[in-house]
Amino acid sequence: MSAQTYKKSEDPHSGSLPDKMAIYQDCLNRFNESPVNPKLCRTLITSLLELLSHGETFPRQEATALFFSISKLFQHPNDSLRQIVYVAIKELCGISDDILMATSSIMKDVQNGSDLVKPNAIRALIRVLDESTAFSAERLLKNSLVSKHPSICSASLVSSYHLLPIAETTVKRFANETQEAVGDLKQLPYPDENSRYYPTTSHISQYHALGLLYQLKNHDKMALIKLIQQFAGHSSPLKNQLAQVQMVKFVHQLVLKDPNSIPQFLPLIANWLQSRHEAVALEACKLTASLSNLVPNDLFAAAVSVLQGFLSTPRVTTRFAAVRLLNKISMVSPEKIVVCNPQLESLVNDSNRNISTYTITTLLKTGTDKNIGSLIKTITKFIHEVNDDFKIIIIDAIRTLSLNFPEECDTILHFLMESLQSAEGSLQFKNSVVEALIDLIQFVPQSKEKALEELCDFIEDCEYNEILVRILHLLGKEGPTTKNPSLYVRHIYNRVILENSIIRSAAVLSLSKFALVKNDPELVESIEQLLTQIKTDSDDEVRDRASIALQFIDSVKSKKDVSNIAQNFIRPTSTYDVVALESKLSHYLSQGQEAFKTPFDVSSVAKYSEDEKKALDLKRRQEQAFNHTEESSNSGAGNGNGTEKGGRKGDRLDDNSFNGPSLESEEEDLLLSKYVDEMSSLEQFQSFGKCIHSSKIVPLTEIEAEFVVKGIKHLFDEHVVLQFHITNTLKDVALDNVEVVCQQEGLSEGLLDEQEEFVLPIERLLPNEGESCYVSFKKLTQNKDDIIVERFSNSLKFQSKELDPSTSLPFEDDEGFQDEYEFDSLFLSPGDYMKPSFVSNFATSLEELPYESVSVYNIVETNTLQEVIDKLVISAGGLPLENSQIVSHDATQHTLKLSGKCILDNTKALLSIKMIKTSKGIAIKALVKSDKESLAEDLSNNLI
Amino acid sequence: MVNLSLYTVKAVLILDGEGRRLYSKYFHPPHEEISADSLASSLKKQKEFESNLFAKTHGQNSDIMISDDLLVIYREYVDVSIYLIGAIDENEIVLQEAFNGFKDSLELILDTGIDKRSVQEHYDMVVLAIDELIDDGIILETDPATIASRVTKPPSKDIPLNIELNEKGLLSAWGFAKSKLAERLQQGL
């Protein structure tokens, strides 16, 4: 024993863990003894297993030696030793070599062993086999599968299941036997007299058989339906509840793939909902919930009442499962589960905090403006009793609530302030409260002044620098536009006197913003005085900021021509898109020395004005509320992905439930900026000036097509450029001189030159390559602000050439043949001229706008309302307000409210789109109001 | 997508009263590569997961929870906690069923109830019970009595070498001596 291992055994943390080397030596010695001592060997193997279970491993050579000495123990007939030997073999076969050597010993046991060790032997057998030897187990597995003993049968089924990845053809040969095993009710043999236990047969082999059978018939839908018909229904032979759950899942899978098949399964589902097994009823509820709008209402109601019953069982897991599912339903159709509210309310104080948190978030969803108030009161009591993870989840739920019930903002504000001021809670918790308050101030204007005042009180004794700085910034941003700005100045200046330098400098910035208040010269003067005083501060950062601010204020007052610039410095009207700025900067830094010669071009980063930023924020919140299902009520600390992403976004510190925009949309943004960069680097487009706007990427073919085409519309002052990104998915053909021929349909009424200016073809497109072809059109109008709407029907023209397999290049003398390929048309819609913008009060803003235009559409295709809404949001390019982009599944009418600004001249446009679903289709009436008549008309006439 | 795989259980753990590992098994299908982000792939992740889990469950008495995007069913005893961990979208009651099989079979085979000492003393039987309960992630059996009846006790005494003294016995004794001699000679070589 080396000194090191000796020390290790003294280590208090290893507890009573045996020494690894000693066990290794003992095993080798004892197992090779003859005769073996079964009791001692079992003890040794136990110690070995204990080591492995604690995460110790052996080097391959030692493990192999162990494996071999253990296989020596097969000569001893003792079952109790044999059983533990099999466990050890299973553990070791992952880290040893030449494990095939044990095959024959194990096979002997499978054939001749006692009923007790046979299952163990079967399960060990398939672990020592590999792809080339798996077939040899076929007969043994088949024989065991038809065994009368349920344990042996199960072992064989499970082992076959494990073998699937390496020996599917072998396993397929006992599909018939497996099918029989599903219906076969095998009984355990009656226990012998000296047995202490009285096993009842669980028939779990049915579950294993079904699982295996599904894998074998996976690709055959008809076979699956037959399977369901045979084994589900009234005379179902399935006794095991796991097997029945599996059956429900089969149906689930089928109807997800083919919703038209739902009606035929409805009686089955209704039957399962009444099952005496909770697991089966729960699975049926899950199935019903996920189909939601596709099943009849009475079935859904039946599922809800099953869940309602679950809510009051004494079994924690059942309650948990039910409330979790209800919480999920509440995200999409809260109105359907309102009946559960009484039961839910009694669960608010459940001893399982997971349950109570789910309950509260569910109640917050199903709540109406009548009971929200009392609900918040309950939560106020509850929140003191749970840990921070749960608190944050609840605050997040309240935050979305405040957007949905602006009229309740007083109660919510009161609650938030109380949580903020209470002594308990970590930085993360406080931060999420501040986060919620900021939301409230931004999106619920009527709460603004009160919330700001409360925050002022709070910063008087706040111990967290980060939060203080945020609040100071917020006060600076919102304070100057309130009725009584001087109030805030006092609070902010107090910080300058009392706090450390970080906060002092934040306070200076915040103060300087009040100097821009127009109608109060006195205030401006006192700000100047205050700043002058601060110039003597002990910290140089604080002093610097004060002097600069004074300088700016001076130039603003003197009304020189730089006053605008100075004003912009004090109170920026627009900010950079922080995420884009960060990614551009890190890209710039990664390019190395060469790139540093040219300075970083900040103009390439998108800038957002106040309204746009709010629009973006709101959009993000809405997305978040929508994706809130699982992760949010996750007990907090989980969801590593969210934390990571949110952290990168840098706009929230807590981020337990914030997922950021979905990964897909982020990737798409990246791709888009890549394409735009490609385009703008071409010299042909240099003379066009700056690109005003680039549309989203529009897929113009199926993604499985031979040539995958995606289109992007770029708008310039005097030109419209269409970029077609073409990917060649054929393996053996190259395309030469690829160009896109665009035919206008004439919607632009002469505003756009019918003949394209030029086409930039792709010289050669090799397999699996993607490149862009550009088509440019000249605008004929002199007025830059005219909106041009046009539909382009496109086709691809190219010479296809076969490839020489040896060089992967076209044959030299191949002239190729001319070919054409048509794909979807590209629509330059009014939505391409719109960007989302935020208005706080849709109804009044709508009334204020002077010009209006109304148009009516009728959609005959059987779309759901939600599909139509999604389409409209994209085609109109506005920001959906008041959560109007979400419609409940069974609603027959809906009003979508969109708000946007024209990118050309920033004219406002609001859209209120009413739709009614009838049996004949969906009728749409769009009301567009705008500052400009032509914009309103263009928008309303070209929505679809 | 519905999860139709039989691989439902991700891990079974037994931790002691201070969150240290007594038994752990992280399951993965035997003939597939272990994916890099699964807990089965690294000891460090497992330890992190366990300490996180213990912090969340110790003294909470809530039986079921979600942690790290996994569904956790557990029971805390005086100085030991037992856990069964499944994927987040698993049927909770199915997992509970498996957990009951686990818990009740332990209660059957450990005479003095579930505590740290009896788990350590009868470690072999605990290992066997879990092996009979779950086979690399597939729930093998849920009936506690069936599981308990399949778990063998350690061999009661050292079984002596049994040589019968009749003609056959003599022959076998001779055969035994011969093989023993050959073995010794081989080892000497």
Automatic annotation (TrEMBL), chain A:
<dbReference type="GO" id="GO:0005793">
    <property type="term" value="C:endoplasmic reticulum-Golgi intermediate compartment"/>
</dbReference>
<keyword id="KW-0968">Cytoplasmic vesicle</keyword>
<keyword id="KW-0931">ER-Golgi transport</keyword>
<dbReference type="GO" id="GO:0005783">
    <property type="term" value="C:endoplasmic reticulum"/>
</dbReference>
<keyword id="KW-0653">Protein transport</keyword>
<dbReference type="GO" id="GO:0030126">
    <property type="term" value="C:COPI vesicle coat"/>
</dbReference>
<dbReference type="GO" id="GO:0000139">
    <property type="term" value="C:Golgi membrane"/>
</dbReference>
<keyword id="KW-0963">Cytoplasm</keyword>
<keyword id="KW-0813">Transport</keyword>
<dbReference type="GO" id="GO:0009306">
    <property type="term" value="P:protein secretion"/>
</dbReference>
<keyword id="KW-0333">Golgi apparatus</keyword>
<dbReference type="Pfam" id="PF08752">
    <property type="entry name" value="COP-gamma_platf"/>
</dbReference>
<dbReference type="InterPro" id="IPR032154">
    <property type="entry name" value="Coatomer_g_Cpla"/>
</dbReference>
<comment type="function">
    <text>The coatomer is a cytosolic protein complex that binds to dilysine motifs and reversibly associates with Golgi non-clathrin-coated vesicles, which further mediate biosynthetic protein transport from the ER, via the Golgi up to the trans Golgi network. Coatomer complex is required for budding from Golgi membranes, and is essential for the retrograde Golgi-to-ER transport of dilysine-tagged proteins.</text>
</comment>
<feature type="domain" description="Coatomer gamma subunit appendage Ig-like subdomain">
    <location>
        <begin position="674"/>
        <end position="828"/>
    </location>
</feature>
<feature type="domain" description="Coatomer subunit gamma C-terminal">
    <location>
        <begin position="831"/>
        <end position="941"/>
    </location>
</feature>
<dbReference type="InterPro" id="IPR011989">
    <property type="entry name" value="ARM-like"/>
</dbReference>
<comment type="subunit">
    <text>Oligomeric complex.</text>
</comment>
<dbReference type="Pfam" id="PF01602">
    <property type="entry name" value="Adaptin_N"/>
</dbReference>
<dbReference type="InterPro" id="IPR013041">
    <property type="entry name" value="Clathrin_app_Ig-like_sf"/>
</dbReference>
<dbReference type="GO" id="GO:0006891">
    <property type="term" value="P:intra-Golgi vesicle-mediated transport"/>
</dbReference>
<dbReference type="GO" id="GO:0006888">
    <property type="term" value="P:endoplasmic reticulum to Golgi vesicle-mediated transport"/>
</dbReference>
UniProtKB/TrEMBL annotation, chain B:
<keyword id="KW-0653">Protein transport</keyword>
<dbReference type="GO" id="GO:0006891">
    <property type="term" value="P:intra-Golgi vesicle-mediated transport"/>
</dbReference>
<feature type="domain" description="AP complex mu/sigma subunit">
    <location>
        <begin position="8"/>
        <end position="152"/>
    </location>
</feature>
<keyword id="KW-0931">ER-Golgi transport</keyword>
<dbReference type="GO" id="GO:0000139">
    <property type="term" value="C:Golgi membrane"/>
</dbReference>
<keyword id="KW-0472">Membrane</keyword>
<protein>
    <recommendedName>
        <fullName>Coatomer subunit zeta</fullName>
    </recommendedName>
</protein>
<keyword id="KW-0963">Cytoplasm</keyword>
<dbReference type="GO" id="GO:0030126">
    <property type="term" value="C:COPI vesicle coat"/>
</dbReference>
<comment type="function">
    <text>The coatomer is a cytosolic protein complex that binds to dilysine motifs and reversibly associates with Golgi non-clathrin-coated vesicles, which further mediate biosynthetic protein transport from the ER, via the Golgi up to the trans Golgi network. Coatomer complex is required for budding from Golgi membranes, and is essential for the retrograde Golgi-to-ER transport of dilysine-tagged proteins. The zeta subunit may be involved in regulating the coat assembly and, hence, the rate of biosynthetic protein transport due to its association-dissociation properties with the coatomer complex.</text>
</comment>
<dbReference type="InterPro" id="IPR022775">
    <property type="entry name" value="AP_mu_sigma_su"/>
</dbReference>
<comment type="subunit">
    <text>Oligomeric complex that consists of at least the alpha, beta, beta', gamma, delta, epsilon and zeta subunits.</text>
</comment>
<keyword id="KW-0813">Transport</keyword>
<dbReference type="GO" id="GO:0006890">
    <property type="term" value="P:retrograde vesicle-mediated transport, Golgi to endoplasmic reticulum"/>
</dbReference>
<dbReference type="InterPro" id="IPR039652">
    <property type="entry name" value="Coatomer_zeta"/>
</dbReference>
<keyword id="KW-0968">Cytoplasmic vesicle</keyword>
<keyword id="KW-0333">Golgi apparatus</keyword>
<comment type="similarity">
    <text>Belongs to the adaptor complexes small subunit family.</text>
</comment>
<dbReference type="Pfam" id="PF01217">
    <property type="entry name" value="Clat_adaptor_s"/>
</dbReference>
<dbReference type="GO" id="GO:0006886">
    <property type="term" value="P:intracellular protein transport"/>
</dbReference>
<dbReference type="InterPro" id="IPR011012">
    <property type="entry name" value="Longin-like_dom_sf"/>
</dbReference>
